[in-house]
Design goal:
The protein is an all-alpha fold and 115 residues long. It has helices spanning 2-27, 41-51, 54-69, 76-107. The chain is elongated.
């Protein structure tokens, strides 16, 4: 079950990267991507270290950039809607991981280290 949820999270990240690539190429923005093969991996890593939250930072920071550019580039609204939906899926998946871990603690291994 955990592997299935992890696969969902990974699929969301891949889809986010696809959207970020389109926005970067079509609208000249420099949105961060999970895939570091785009040549800006050092920039991505430094920004993520600065914010102390590697996974959250991409979605939040990119949505901030998109919000700032919406007046100039109204076409970004469609991408924003898609990205917000992907964040919702990711939050739900992380919630399922928490529930799985709690179920494991409650039902399989009930010792202080697991808790």
């Amino acid at each position: 079950m955990k592997d299935k949820v992890d696969n969902i999270i990974q699929a969301v990240k891949v889809k986010e990267d696809e959207i970020y690539t389109v926005i970067n190429e079509d609208h000249g923005l420099e949105l961060l991507k999970h895939d570091d093969s785009d040549g800006v991996s050092i920039k991505n890593q430094l920004k993520s270290l600065y914010n102390n939250d590697f996974n959250r930072e991409f979605a939040v920071e990119n949505l901030k950039v998109i919000d700032e550019k919406l007046k100039e580039i109204p076409a970004l609204e469609t991408y924003k809607t898609q990205l917000v939906a992907l964040v919702d899926v990711q939050v739900s998946a992380y919630d399922q991981l928490v529930q799985l871990q709690q179920s494991y603690v409650d039902n399989v291994e009930d010792d202080p280290a697991t808790r």
